Amino acid sequence: MELALEKWSGSVAEVSVGATKDEGGTRAKSIKIGGHKTLPLLFKESAIPNRPVVAFEVWDIAPTEWPEELIKSYGDKLKDPVAWADFCVKEYKAQVLCIKLQGSHPDFGNKTPDEEAKLIGKILKRVDVPLVILGSGDDSKDNLVLPAASEAAKGERALVGDAVQDNYKTLVAAVLADGHNIIAESPIDINIAKQLNILISDMGLSLERIVINPTIGALGYGLEYAYSIMERARLAALSGDKTVANPFVCFVGHEAWRAKEAKAKIAEFPSWGPEPERGIIWEVITAAALIQSGGDLLIMRHPKAVEKVNKYIDELFRDASQVSYKVSP
Amino acid sequence: MALSGLDIYKLLPKTNCRECGFPTCLAFAMQLAKKAISIDKCPYLSQEAKKVLEASSQPPIKLVTVGVGDSRLEFGNETVMFRHEEKFFHPCGIGFIIEDNLSDSEISRKLERINKLKFERVGQKIEVNLVAVRQTNDGQRFVDAVQLVSSGTSLGLVLMSDEPEALKSALEITRTKRPLIYHATKNNLAAVAQVAKEFNLPLVVSGPDLDTLSNLTKELNSLGVAELVLETEKKNVADKIWDLTQIRRQALRKSNRALGYPVLVLVENSDPYEEAVEAATFIAKYASMLLMKGTESWQVLSLLTLRQNIYTDPQKPLQMEAKLYAIGQVTDKSPVLVTTNFSLSYYTVLGEVEASKIPAYIVSVDTEGMSVLTAWAAEKFTPDKITENLEKCEVAKAVSHKRLIIPGYVAVMSGDLEEKSGWQVTVGPKEAAGIPSFLKNLQ
Asked: Is residue A37 situated within a structural domain?
C-alpha cells in the first residue's frame, strides 16, 4: 500500500530560549522549540526536531485567587518568588520557569520597574534554567516594567511577553536591545497573528525570535477555537507562509484552573468526582489536546499535572530518534 | 471521494445527445457533481463508468451503526482531516471494557458506575456510549457475563472474544440489540466472518499494520461482511496516531475503500491520568470509538468534555435562544444580568447565578453565538443591540426597576447604553466567578 504522505514546503521557525555560558548567558542549558517540518507527532512523515516543553509559572506576589489545590502544592514558597522559583527547579525539576510580574499591576501592588528588575536578577542568580518573563497585562505599566526586566536579563535570551497589536513597540525595542525572544499575542485570530509578526519583524526582530500566543481556552471553555486556529496556522506555515511559522506558547495553567470543573468542591457536584484529581486532569487534558494541535511551550501550574504531561511527552517521543522518514526530512 | 464535474465529464459519452435533458454532456456532468440529478438519466453510460460514478457517491468512510432504537449509535462517515475544514460529524463513542473474570456482583457494581457516567454541560447531555465484555477464560462464563451486562444497561454492546463459538452463543441472546462483534483477525477470519454474516452485525477487524488490515477487509468484503470497524494492534501512542492519521488520509485523500471504515482504539493503562491522556489523544486524532478500563468520573468528565469541544461545529457555535431567562423564584425586584447567547457565556453566568442562590433574570442577547468580547469587537454586542433585545424580550414588563448589570469586560459601553436604553447600568465582574459575591453585595 502506498502511504498517504504530505510533502510540506515550509517549516516552523526554531526558537532557542535561554543562553548558556558559550552563548553569552549564564543558563545551564538552553531549550529549543519549534523547527517542525510536519504536523504534530507525525514522526514518519518528516522531521520533528524538538519536543513540547513545559514551564512552571512563578509569580512575583503570592497569588490570592489560585484554588486551594494549587496553593497546597507550593505552600509558603508562594510568598517568596525566589524560593518559589528555586523549589520548582530543585523539587519538580522544572526545565523552564515563567516569571509573571503580576505584582507590578496598579491593582496588585504596583511594584516598580526597579523592584521587578532586581527580582529578575535574583531569580537568574538562584536558578539556572531559561526564563519566560511576563508583564501584568496593564499596557502602560508593562511598558515601564518589561524593559527594566528585559535589561536585568540581558544576554540570557529569555522569552518576554506579551506583545499585542496595539502595544508592541516598546517591548520589541527592549527585546532587540537585550537579545531576547518575544511572545506575540493574538486573540484566536490567524490574521492578527500574521499582522503582528510582520509588524514585529519590520522593527528588525527576526521571525526566528517570535513565539505565538494564540490565546487558548481551557478544556470545555473554548479549547476548540484555539485548537483549530493552531491547526490552521500550522498548515499555513508548513505550506510555506513564513509569517505564521512560529512555535506556540499556551497558557494552560492559567486557563485550566479558572474552569469550574477544576475548582468546584465535590460537595457542590458529587457526580464529578474528587477535586484534586479533577483539577489536575483538567490541566493535563487541556495540555494534551493542545499538544495535538501544535503547542510547543506549555505554561503550567500544578506539579502533578506537569509530571503527567512530561511523562506523556516522553511516551510520545519514545521512539522518535529511531524513526526513518518516508519522505526526505 | 467526490468527483468534480470535469472528472465526471471524462466518463460520459461526450456525444451531446441531449437525451438527459441537458444541452451538453458537460452541463449534465456539472449537475451530477452537484448531486442534483441521477446518473440514470444518461442511457448511454458504459457499465464501467456507472461503477465509478456509483462508487464515488458512496461516502469515503462507511457509516457503521451499533445498537438499536434510542441506543442507536452511528460511527464513521467523516469527510475531513481537520475540523475547521467542515466539521467532525459522528462523535467518538466512549466505552468501557468489563472482563468476564470479575464476579457477578463486581460486574453489576461496575456496570452501575458506568450507567451513571452522564453529565450536562452548556445545555447538552454528554454521556458514555458503549460497554464491552471481554472473554478471559471459558466460553460459558463469557456468555453468562454478556447476559448479565446486556440486561443491566441500555448502552451499546461490544462482545470481545477470539472464539467464534462463544461469540455465537453470546449473540444468540443479544442479537436484537445490534452489538458490535470483536474481532476478526488473520487467524480466525473465515469463522468469525461467518458469524457476523449469519447475524448480520458489524464486525471489528484487527491487524498489526495497515497492509494486513486492508487485505483482511477485502477478504471480509468478499465473504459478504460489509459493516466493518478497523483496529490496529496495541502500540505506542505516536505510532497509533500515525495509524489513525494514515487510515483517515487513505480513505479521504486516496479513496482507499479497503480502509474506509470507522476505527476502534483500546486504551488500557492502570494509571488513570495516563489512561485519560492517551484517550484524549485519540479523541482528537480520529478514533471513531474508544474502549478503556478506568471509570473514574473525573477521567470520564474530562474526556466527554474534550469530545464535545472537538465535535462542535466550528461554523455554528453552540447558541441559546436569545430571550429573558428567569432563574429561581424571581420577583419584579430581581436583578437583571445581560450576557450573550453564546451557550458557554450563558451557562457560565447561569451556573454562578444559581450558585449565588439569589433569584435573577438573565437576558441573553442575540450575538449570533459569539462570546462577550468577540461579540463586542464584532459589533454584535453593542448598546443598540442590547437595547433592541431588552425591548424584544419585554424586560420592562418583568421587573419594576430599571437597573441592568453588564459584563465587566464591556464596561466602556455603560454610558452609551444608559443613553440608548434608558436603563441604569451597573458594571458587573469581568469573570462569571465573581457573580455570586457581586449579587450579594448588590442586596
From this structure: no
